[in-house]
Amino acid sequence: MTTLLHIDASIRAVKNDNPDHDSISKNIAKRFIESVTQQQSIDEYIYRDVGVNPPPFITQDWIGAVFTPDDKKTAKQQQLLALSDTLIAEIAAADIIVISSPMYNYGMPAQLKAWFDQVVRINKTFDFDLARGDFPLQPLLGGKTLVVITSSGEFGFEQGGIREHMSHLVPHLRTLSKYLGVSTIHEIASEYQEFADIRHQQSLSNAYSQATELALQLTNMAI
Q: Which cofactor does it need (predicted)?
């Protein structure tokens, strides 16, 4: 039994009238999903395009609802948390989570951050206990695999790269992933987009190949 949750964060569509405007991250994710489904049967596929249909930003009232005991929540508070409850249920059900995202201003798009703010939630995806000392937060979910697919205009954002210190996308995703219950992370990156030269074409080709190879790898592990 495999449930796959797919989150796309680019504001661009997969296909546009001008191919130069096609979302790179979405297309690599599409290749990965297609490769997985060719190799194995997915029992449930859940898709969210938060780039095009972003969840609302959390508010003071939303936070108030979160910290109100369940048996004392008003109907309005329950309604405020309804989407969050749905999104968290999707994560809880997933065995594999795919997050594709472009790098915007060296970090994640606001739309993807809004999704994380809806799902990283006390007593749902983590609990809090001061008896743990300086590390009171503990994830409540576990055992999931995360595939992170990113695209960037520059290059060298990997660990040890010349722009590692400027990358606030993948490091942020790694930090937050534990609150999604992630135990294993795979990363695929396409770089050099703004240079539009042979390096970009090679990086993009490598990313597509990695997506296909990773799909086969995960399928073999599942058998």
A: FMN
DSSP 163: T
For 18, the 3-state DSSP assignment is coil
Which residue range(s) make up the domain with 171?
A: 3-222
Handedness of CA 113, 114, 117, 118 (dihedral sign): negative
33 is in an annotated binding site: no
Q: What is the CATH number of the domain that holds 103?
A: 3.40.50.360
Q: Tell me which amino acid residue 110 is.
A: A
pTM here is 0.96
At 132-173, the pLDDT tens digits run 999 999 999 999 999 999 999 999 999 999 999 999 999 999
Distance CA 182, CA 29 (A): 18
Residue 101 known to bind ligand: no
Q: Does 10 show up as a binding residue in the annotation? A: yes
Q: According to DSSP H, which parts of 56-197 are helical?
A: 60-66, 75-80, 82-93, 110-119, 170-177
DSSP reduced 3-state for 201: helix
**Looking at the 3D structure of the chain, how many domains does it have?**
1
CA 69 to chain centre: 29
Going by C-beta distance under 8 Å and a sequence separation of 6 or more, which residues neighbour residue 25?
A: 8, 9, 10, 100, 101, 102, 149, 150, 151, 190
Q: Is 179 exposed, middle or buried (0-12, 13-18, 19+ CB in 10 A)?
A: buried
Is 205 labelled as part of a ligand binding site?
no
Cα–Cα dist 85/55, whole Å:
12
Task: Inform me whether the pLDDT recorded for 223 exceeds 60.
Answer: no
